[in-house]
Amino acid sequence: MKIFAILFLSLFFFSPVFAQVDDIKDKSKNNREKQNDESENLNSSNSSSFGDVCAEIFVEVAFALLYDQHLQQIANKANDPTAFSLDVMPHFAFSPDDNYFNFLPRIRGTWGVLSTDFRMNYLLDFDEGAAETFRTIEWQVLQFNIVPVEEFTLRFSTGLMYEEFTGNLYNEHYLGLCFRLDKQKILATLEGRFTYDYNAQTIEPNVFYEINLRGAYRILDFKNLWGYATFGILYQNYYQSVEMLSVQGGLTFNIH
């Protein structure tokens, strides 16, 4: 019942044409220019005392459940060493049809129900011998792992995405599911990222979203280190108009 309670509470926390990197830059630049031309609209509303009380009760119950879950996961570290660990993920993706590479180095630290997740999304596109690049830096500042079983993890979080080309900073949300089979020898992971421009008064407020499906097989098995070979499919969408589909691979190291 505790798992279902946490899952229930967590619900409240929270054109297809393949293009090249220069198309993403065009959309990014247009979005920046539209923002500069827009005036700010401030809306005020009267607060409800009843709503404030409900929100306070919800926060207290949610944090109490998460704290209890955190203690359980730390106590179970002998059975699940990843409860206190560091994941290093030198991943990459490639599109043979559109001739671009996507480098995705990533690092994630986990302590019980809490994690922090840092990733660079670096696109490199070759067009007639010239290279075009586009980079974002993503930091899921506070991430929650709310499922206590060794065979499955459910993570959700919110954080920041910095777009280097325009210098814009956005709020990015994350949801990830991972099935850990055969005592975590095999991993099957489905992740989603969503970045929304809350200040945009345009028809393209969705800056970026991603669906990441990958599998991993353990090839290194030491007392304090597991190593996985990873492979999968990566879908990314920029500004609701630039779609990118690629195959991905790389390695994943879990230090525990």
Strand and helix map with partners:
Elements: H1 2-10, H2 21-37, H3 49-75, E1 84-95, E2 100-111, E3 114-127, E4 130-145, E5 152-163, E6 168-181, E7 186-196, E8 206-221, E9 225-238, E10 242-255
Helix pairs in contact: 1-3
Radius of gyration: 20 Å
- What is the overall silhouette? flat
* Number of alpha- plus pi-helical segments: 3
The tally of strands reads 10
Structural class of the secondary structure composition? alpha+beta
Mean pLDDT: 83
Oligomer: single chain
Describe this structure in words.
There is one protein chain. The chain has 256 residues and is an alpha+beta fold. It is 21% helix and 53% strand. The chain contains three helices and ten strands, in the order H-H-H-E-E-E-E-E-E-E-E-E-E. It has helices at 2-10, 21-37, 49-75, and strands at residues 84-95, 100-111, 114-127, 130-145, 152-163, 168-181, 186-196, 206-221, 225-238, 242-255. It is flat, with a radius of gyration of 20 Å.
List keywords for this structure.
21% helix; 256 residues; flat; 3 helices; 10-stranded antiparallel β-barrel; alpha+beta; 10 strands; disordered N terminus
Give a summary of the structure in a few sentences.
This protein is α+β, with helices and mostly antiparallel strands. It has three helices and ten strands. The protein has helices spanning 2-10, 21-37, 49-75; strands at 84-95, 100-111, 114-127, 130-145, 152-163, 168-181, 186-196, 206-221, 225-238, 242-255.
